Amino acid sequence: MSTVSYHISSLLEKMTSTDKDFRFMATNDLMLELQKESIKLDEDSERKVVNMLLRLLEDKNGEVQNLAVKCLAPLVSKVKEPQVEAMVDILCANMRSDKEQLRDISSMGLKAVIAELPLSASGLSLTASVCKKITSQLIGAMGKQEDVSVQLEALDILSDMLGRLGGALVGFHSSLLSSLLPQLTSSRMAVRKRSILALGHLVPSCSPVLFSQLTDHLLKELAKNPQTSLTRTYIQCLATVSRQGGHRVGDHLEKLIPMVVKFTGVEDDELREYCFQAFEAFIRRCPKEMSPHVAMVTKLCLKFMTFDPNYNYDDSEEDEDSMDIEDGDDEESDDEYSDDDDMSWKVRRSAIKCLEAWISTRRDLLLSFYSSICPALLARFKEREENVRADVFAAFSTLLRQTRGGSSHHSLITAGSELGASRDQETAVALLKTQVLNQGFNACELRSEEKFKFHLPNFTLTV
């Protein structure tokens, strides 16, 4: 017996001790050995190490369990394919266990194994074989409707695997899509959200046919005018798929845009937020293909960036003072509605982010943006929600950066520097000056600590 084999055998023997400290130290020593590049295990040692670590996953001591999981990652590159497959089989079986702790620890183990599977051509056989085993069992676990925790773990692992090894799962893409789509109608929101994440990871490596199948399914379901909760899920999925699908989304925009526009009219703040997130994804991934829809989408953004039905920005200081001396009866009625219930700020924020997407991707429309978007952004400097106001400033900053995009970037452009400014740039600056004067910053009522300075050719704007 070689020195390495003898040392490993000694550690394995200590792992069977009734003393948890002995088991912990032996497992820790094994982990350190496995992390060494030089270690080589014979076939018998491979089998014994794998069996022992899988056994320790059910150890009564949590620290020993955690160490056993940490050993699985370096073990992947130290044992042959049959042993890795054996690990995966046991871990997948444990995920269906009635013991929650064993399910959780086995899920961690599977994620560790997946993270270590080789991407090189030399290890492709192992990766493909292991992925095949895991995927077939995860598909079965996703259908286990009676135990939502099993579904959630399966979806988590599937997302990890698709995100890292999507190309190795091409043969399973169709069955994965068929298994994931029904999960979008789950009664559990957590299942729906993780299914959306998994679909997002599937999209970059799937075929154009499957991408069209997924998009057509979402359109078909949205056309049925489902209940608002399901509509939110489908629109959110559409936004995720669009972000991950890249230019392929452009082939479907003529059908997608009218559908999303339609649902902005539904009185539901969360749904509207998801609609504008979908618009933003369309714009950032397919800016040219979105050209026919610039006017419509911009109009919606301008409308909903001011959507604040529970607040009157025109109230004067006198009105606020008068409220302090109103009767207690009025205070009781005010308690019926809380700012915590107001989700309209999410709608405003998503609409503003959508406008920023237009500005950053379509510099060719800069002059028209100064006529339509610029005054709207300046007017929203009075926004009451800090998060939304920050997005207003961010969008306006993007507009300014686009304006000086043709000039040197090594320093800010200060007053008097006109070198290299194009005619469009000069026109844009003139429009900016006009818009600033028209708006009049006295109406913004910004506090002194909330100052922002923007530098442009011939013009410095301090807010």
TrEMBL record:
Range of residues in the leader sequence: none
Keyword check for DNA-binding: no
HEAT repeats: 49-87
Keyword entries, A-Z: Repeat, Ubl conjugation pathway
Matching InterPro entries: ARM-like, ARM-type_fold, CAND1/CAND2, HEAT_GCN1, HEAT_type_2
Stalled ribosome sensor GCN1-like HEAT repeats region domain segment(s): 5-104
Name of this chain's protein: Cullin-associated NEDD8-dissociated protein 1
Superkingdom, natural source: Eukaryota
Region (Disordered): 313-341
Keyword Lipid biosynthesis among record annotations: no
Record Pfam families: HEAT_GCN1
UniProt biased composition (Acidic residues): 314-341
